[in-house]
Amino acid sequence: MRETRAAIWLWVRDHWHRVEIKGKFMARTNPFTFLQQVRSEVAKVVWPTRNETLVSTIMVLIMVALASVFFLAADQIVAWFVGLLLSIG
C-alpha cells in the first residue's frame, strides 16, 4: 500500500468546495495473482451444512408467510377504514 492523495470538487450551496482525500490504497494486481488470492480466500470460507441450509430456508419461508398474512390483514383494515370515511360524506 502506498500513500495517495486525491482532490475532488463538490458544488454545495451555490459555490464549489475542494475536498482532499488522502489515504493508503492498494496497488493493482495482475489477473492471475487476483484469481490466486480469490481462491485462497474462498478456501477459508466455512460453508453451511445441508441441514443448516434446509432449516434456514424453512425459517425464511415461514417468516414470508407470516409477513404476507400480516400485510394482508393491515391492508384489509386500512381499506375498511378508508371505505368507512368515504361513505360518511
Quick recap of the structure?
With 89 residues, the chain is α+β, with helices and mostly antiparallel strands. 60% of the residues lie in helices and 25% in strands.
Structure description:
This protein is an alpha+beta fold. It has one domain (2-27, 47-88). 60% of the residues lie in helices and 25% in strands. A two-stranded antiparallel sheet has the order 1-2. Strand 1 and strand 2 (15-25) form a beta hairpin. It is flat. The mean pLDDT is 88.
Q: Name the overall outline.
A: flat
What count of helical segments does DSSP give? 2
Sequence of secondary-structure elements: EEHH
The biggest beta sheet reads: 2 strands, antiparallel
Number of domains as seen in the coordinates: 1
How large, in whole angstroms, is the Cα Rg?
Answer: 28 Å
Number of strands: 2
Which structural class should the secondary elements be placed in? alpha+beta
| N-to-C CA distance | 71 Å
Strand content: 15-25%
Name some characteristics of this structure:
2 strands; alpha+beta; 25% strand; 89 residues; two-stranded antiparallel sheet
